Amino acid sequence: MTPTAWPVALTCAAAMNRGGKALIIGISGQDGAYLARFLLDKGYEVVGTSRDARTVSLANLDAVGVGRKVRVESMALTDFPCVVDVLRKVRPDEIYNLAGQSSVGLSFELPLETFAGIALGSSNLLEAIRFLRLPVKLFNASSSECFGDIGDQPASEATPFQPRSPYASAKAAAFWQTANYRAAYGLFACSGILFNHESPLRSDRFVTRKIVKTVVEIAAGRASRLSLGNIDIRRDWGWAPEFVEGMWLMLQQDAPDDYILATGKSVALREFVEHAFAALGLDWRQYTVSDPALLRPTDLPVSRADAAKAERRLGWKAKVVMPEVAALMVEAELRSGGAPAVTTVTTCGEAERR
Q1: What is the pLDDT of residues 171-199, one digit of tens each?
Q2: In angstroms, rounded to a whole number, what is the distance separating the alpha carbons of residues 274 and 291?
Q3: Which structural domain, as residue segments, surrounds residue 170?
Q4: Domain CATH for 299
Q5: Which of 147, 186, 205, 216 is spaced 20 to 30 Å from 174 by Cα?
Q6: Which residues of 146-178 are buried (b: 16+ CB within 10 A; e: fewer)?
Q7: Is 224 among the residues known to form the active site?
Q8: CA 78 → CA 37, 62, 127, 303, 351, distances in Å?
Q9: pTM, 2 dp
Q10: For residue 50, which phi and psi values (nearest 5 degrees)?
Q11: Closest among 209, 93, 203, 197 to 144, alpha carbons compared
């Protein structure tokens, strides 16, 4: 396929707007579950992948009510023949690559595994699409971590990457590989540079879920303190169900491009903590302690986004921001008794445990 072939080969937006077949790689995670529900509501046939379809937990899919509506195939992105086999079998219209080790903190402990799963995995997927000459549209989940420490200036799509962790380096490599396959081989391939986006489906490895889970336990008398590392870092926390709509919108455009998805509002972690405790009438200062063991080797003091391009071209703009994100997560935690659950909000990242 030549670099200019995709407008002809992939002029199927009208058909995809009526549904189509979507392959979600990494369907069992937070974003995969919300995206599956979103696409099913639009009439798509949804197929997901996991390293082992026989043992993967479908708890998140069940939580959003679609566990029995999707088919899951076994696939390891680091195994090129396996990727080819699954793509040849499924033959999707759209692919959403949400897979890979997602913890920045854990990436310092497992740098090679993190890089292989994200960078090599993304390369295998791109090459499999090229090898099979599939007329498919690809979404690649990139990360705000790629920007690194750029000070207090908001990052745009034109801001150079300065990754400061193994996770960020892997995501940056996957981003540029996606861009290169788009330019050199004519693939319809987009990267969404996702800033933090949270929900009750987050595991407690991520700092937001850890906070709300501990706050609820403290309020119930089952815990006495919340231990955190650096609470002065500032992040842009959005609402995950909204972000999956942005992913889908990228693949409905006439031409592939890369977009930042974010709220455009950065707040300190201490503010998230304060609002989570306040939702239950508690003073966070009485229960929160600093634990040096939770500090990272390198960290970003500020993460700030300019998401104007997504609003201008996709018509996408985040509506749910902090402190509503914190309040919604606490509300869901109370209803679920501590297990992952979804909220009643249906409006349409990544700070992990600290």
Answers
A1: 999 999 999 999 999 999 999 999 999 99
A2: 18
A3: 6-197+239-261
A4: 3.90.25.10
A5: 205
A6: bbbebeeebbeeebebebbbbbbbbbbbbbebb
A7: no
A8: 27, 27, 12, 30, 25
A9: 0.89
A10: -150, 160
A11: 197
Q: Which burial class, exposed, middle or buried, applies to 54 when counting CB atoms under 10 A from its CB (0-12, 13-18, 19+)? A: exposed
Can you point out the beta strands (E) in 233-313? 234-235, 238-239, 259-261, 267-268, 288-290
Same domain membership, residue 243 and residue 287: no
Residue 135 has pLDDT above 60, yes or no: yes
Q: Which of 117-131, 195-209, 225-239, 330-344 is least confident?
A: 330-344
Catalytic residue among 50, 94, 145, 165: 145
Reply yes or no on whether the pLDDT at 124 is more than 80. Answer: yes
Q: Is 145 a catalytic residue?
A: yes
In total, how many domains does the chain have? 2
Q: Which of 167, 185, 259, 287 is the catalytic position?
A: 167
- Contact by Cβ (8 Å): 84, 128: yes
Bridge partners of 48, per DSSP, are: 24, 72
**Closest Cα to residue 288, out of 227, 224, 335?**
227
Residue 143 annotated in active site: yes
Q: Which of 50, 143, 169, 199 is catalytic?
A: 143
Tokens representing 16? Answer: 């995809």
**Residue 8: enclosing H or E segment and its boundaries?**
helix 6-9
